[in-house]
Amino acid sequence: MAGIGVKILAGVMAIPLQKFVTSKLESSWRSATGTEPPSKERRKEQEKANKEAEKLGLLPRPIDEPKLADALMWSALTAMSIIAVKYATERGAQEMHRIFVGTNPPPGTVLSRSTEVVERNTRKTKRAV
Q: What is the CB neighbour count within 10 angstroms for residue 90?
């Protein structure tokens, strides 16, 4: 994807799509595990509640630390969602360009298959030698 217009369109499409995917991912996590997904915001909220409890003379509640497996799974799921949204928005922006302009977008460096990446890297190394 090389054209600046296509990149801007992909960025504009990515924002609401990522928010939608993140909300669905969080709700799926809650229904599957029965707990909130691990996040810094959750920990900060718990620490803030403990500080307020201390001011009132109450005993602080223990802070819920996520298990290592949960933290790794959550980071893998969010990374996959980011990749999926990026792919969908790039392809969607290219299709929008084809619909509105009537031509294919300018050629760029978007590679759709791993074999294309290998071919591109081998061409670069051959030129360097």
A: 21
Is residue 21 within 8 A of residue 82, CB to CB? The reply is no
Residue at token pair 């707990």: 35
CA dist 39 and 71 (Å) reads 9
pLDDT tens by residue, 84-106:
998 898 888 888 888 888 877 77
Is residue 35 within 8 Å of residue 71, measured between CB atoms?
A: no
Answer whether 0.70 is exceeded by the pTM.
no
Q: Which long-range contacts (CB under 8 A, 24 or more apart) does 94-100 make?
A: 94/1, 94/6, 96/9, 97/3, 97/5, 97/6, 97/9
Alpha carbons within 13 angstroms on the beta-carbon side of residue 124 total 6
